[in-house]
Amino acid sequence: MPRLAFATIGDLLTQALLGGDFEIYRGLFALPNRITPRGDLSYVIQTEAELREDFALYHSNLTGRGVTDIFRQVIDFTVIYPNHVKVRVLTHIMVRAQRIVDPFETHFYLVEQPDGWRICEIESAGGHINWSLGRLEIKAGAFVAKQKGDPDDQA
Fold first, then answer.
1. Distances (CA, A) of 69 to 33, 80, 88, 117, 121
2. Rounded Cα distance, 155 and 148, in Å
3. Which structural domains are found in the chain, ordered by start?
4. How far is CA 11 from CA 17, 27, 44, 62, in A?
5. 11-63 confidence digits (pLDDT tens)
6. Strands 104-113 and 116-125, sheet pairing
7. Which residues lie below 8 Å from residue 137, measured CB to CB, with a gap of 6+?
8. DSSP letter assigned to residue 30
9. Which residues have CB under 8 Å from 57's CB, separation 6+?
């Protein structure tokens, strides 16, 4: 995988998540797919139905916050095997020109399939994964525990 090819994958991932396009999203992932919240237990998405459910939760959280862009700045690119790479990025979640949370590191593991490169594992900040699943909220630029009866902070 050429290093610059990840930019296309990242752009398509953002387009799918923000636009609610599961077909594009599905085309970027290999199944099974491991999701690892740093500092927490990983989980494995085995089926397309599970991937669709995970996508719907993340899409809902992004659109609910008014996210307009997710920028992934490549920090490092490692070839594990000729058909397996790791891309380390700094992730910026944006509403227009403002970050809604401090940037955090994400690791994408990709494998080459007959029809192209697919994401087979994502390791990200525990707060990010748990927010995408609706377990945390964003306040003052950080992922924090949800407070009962406390409305979401919108910036």
1. 24, 29, 18, 22, 22
2. 19
3. 5-145 (3.10.450.50)
4. 10, 13, 24, 15
5. 999 999 999 999 999 999 999 999 999 888 999 999 999 999 999 999 999 99
6. antiparallel
7. 131, 143, 144, 145, 146, 147, 152, 153
8. E
9. 132, 133, 134
